[in-house]
Every structure is written in structure tokens, then in C-alpha cells.
Write a structure and sequence with these properties.
- This protein has a single domain, classed as Vaccinia Virus protein VP39 (Rossmann fold, 3-Layer(aba) Sandwich), CATH 3.40.50.
- Helix content is 32%, strand content 22%.
- The chain is built from ten helices and seven strands.
- The longest helix is centred in the N-terminal third of the chain and has 16 residues.
- The protein starts with a helix and ends with a strand.
């Protein structure tokens, strides 16, 4: 599948997700009509309910970490959130930057931009802005962000090299990133990697950890730190949609697997 086809697939899936409730999304890691019907998506997501700035209307239950946890955001900072969805991480970041700061959410799904904008309007926030745009070509000037965050989104971007080059571009000198994402320890079986629906479910778009970190380093970012690695256990009934019973046992005993991590790095 070509990059533009993959982008169209992801946009279609997340447009459907934008129209669903958090409860609906948490019970299907691919959203409406997706591949993971019946699977427990909370394997990926973490609870935000005790965090300052949390707004349940903005939480679609689609993350795989809490990037603000390691982002070292300070009052007055400008923060960019990539793949901002309904605004969940933006509103948490806004509680940290305060009134003097600014938060910019970027998403390429029109329905998500509309939803996040409505949430910001309801909350009366004037220093949170949501922009329609592609992470591979962000609609913002160079050197404007103190911090870039993202939550389970960059693995869905077909050209990760270009995405991290853009992240480097928009960061101020001395700025840093804190991105939560899904990576592979070892290789996934080809029939899972090639399943388009699984791609939109944050699994088949993932790359091996070492490759992911190498992409970040090649962008120019340094002082990389991997925080909070957490193994994601996919249920057997899900994997049996793509593997036979022998292949499943081989995969489970191979030592390979899917992990959520949060990566910190500096410009």
C-alpha cells in the first residue's frame, strides 16, 4: 500500500472514531467497524482522570501513554501536540503552560479538528489552537515550539523520517520532545503487518524500537531516553484472525512483542 493510500485509510478510520463516544472507542482499537471488535483497547491507553486539565469530552481513549508525564512542560512554554484528536493532551498541556503559554494541536482529520475546537470553545480557552495539517508538512513556522508531544500517532505516519525532520524544524534550539508510541521488539508476522485494518489500530504501522530511535537520531535530536516501556498483550482471539494456532504459539514464545514507550529527546 502506498503512503497516500495509508494516509487515506487512517483518515477514514479516525473520522469515524471522532463521531463515537469514548466508551465505543475503548472497546475497539480500530474504531467503528474496525478489526479489533471485542478486543480491550485499554491494553493501550492509560487513565487521565486524575490529571489537572483533564476533560472527559476530549478523551477518546486512543492513546498508548501520557506524553506530558515526561515532557517537562513549564509555564509560558509553547507546546505542539501532533495528532491532537479531540484535544485531550492539549488540555492537559494547557494546564501546565498556564495563561502565558500556548498549545497548538495539529491533526489531519477534519472531524477531529472540529471536535477539538468545539471542546476548546466550551472550556473558554483562548491560548489553545487546533490546526488542520499533515505531520509530514506542519502548517507552522520553524523554531516556535519549546516542547513537542504526541500520543500513539507517529507510528501511523508512513514517512517517519520526514515527520521527525519536521519535529526538529519546529522546535526551538534547546527544545525537546516527549512522544508516546507503539514499537516492536523483534518482528511481527507478515500477515499482521500487511493487514490494513490493523495498521489503523496502531499495531502494523509500528517499527522495531532500534529503527524508531535511529530515525529520531537522524533527524538531529539527541540525548534520547526511553521512558515507561510497557508490553501490550493482544488477546488470542484477535491474533487468531491473522494467525493459525501453531503460528500463534510460535509468536507468543518468540520473545517478540508490541510495546508502548515514551521517548524524550532534545534539539
Amino acid at each position: 500500500m502506498k503512503n497516500e493510500e495509508l494516509k487515506s485509510l487512517v483518515k477514514e478510520k479516525y473520522s469515524e472514531i471522532a463521531l463515537q463516544s469514548t466508551q465505543e472507542n475503548e472497546t475497539s482499537c480500530c474504531g467503528s467497524g474496525g478489526c479489533c471488535s471485542g478486543a480491550d483497547y485499554t491494553n493501550f491507553s492509560e487513565s487521565y482522570t486524575d490529571l489537572k486539565g483533564y476533560n472527559p469530552d476530549a478523551d477518546l481513549g486512543l492513546g498508548c501513554g501520557i506524553p506530558t508525564e515526561f515532557a517537562q512542560i513549564e509555564e509560558g512554554d509553547t507546546v505542539i501536540d501532533l495528532g491532537s484528536g479531540a484535544g485531550n493532551d492539549c488540555f492537559v498541556a494547557r494546564s501546565l503552560v498556564g495563561e502565558p503559554g500556548k498549545v497548538i494541536g495539529i491533526d489531519f482529520t477534519e472531524a477531529m479538528i472540529e471536535k477539538s475546537g468545539q471542546n476548546a470553545e466550551k472550556l473558554g480557552f483562548t491560548n489553545v489552537e487546533f490546526l488542520l495539517g499533515d505531520i509530514e508538512q506542519m502548517p507552522v513556522d520553524s523554531g516556535i515550539a519549546d516542547v513537542v508531544i504526541s500520543n500513539c500517532v507517529l507510528n501511523l505516519v508512513p514517512d517517519k523520517e520526514k515527520a521527525f525532520q519536521e519535529i526538529f524544524r519546529v522546535l526551538k534550539p534547546g527544545g525537546h520532545i516527549s512522544v508516546s508510541d507503539v514499537v516492536l521488539y523483534g518482528e511481527l508476522p507478515e500477515n499482521i503487518k500487511n493487514a490494513a485494518e490493523m495498521y489503523a489500530g496502531c499495531v502494523s504501522g509500528a517499527v522495531p524500537l532500534n529503527e524508531y530511535l535511529s530515525i529520531i537520531r537522524r533527524s538531529g535530536l539527541s540525548n534520547l531516553k526511553v521512558k515507561k516501556p510497557r508490553r501490550i498483550i493482544l488477546p488470542d482471539e484477535l491474533l487468531l484472525n491473522y494467525l493459525n494456532s501453531i503460528e500463534l504459539e510460535t509468536f507468543k514464545t518468540s520473545g517478540n512483542g508490541i510495546y508502548s514507550i515514551t521517548v524524550y529527546a532534545e534539539k
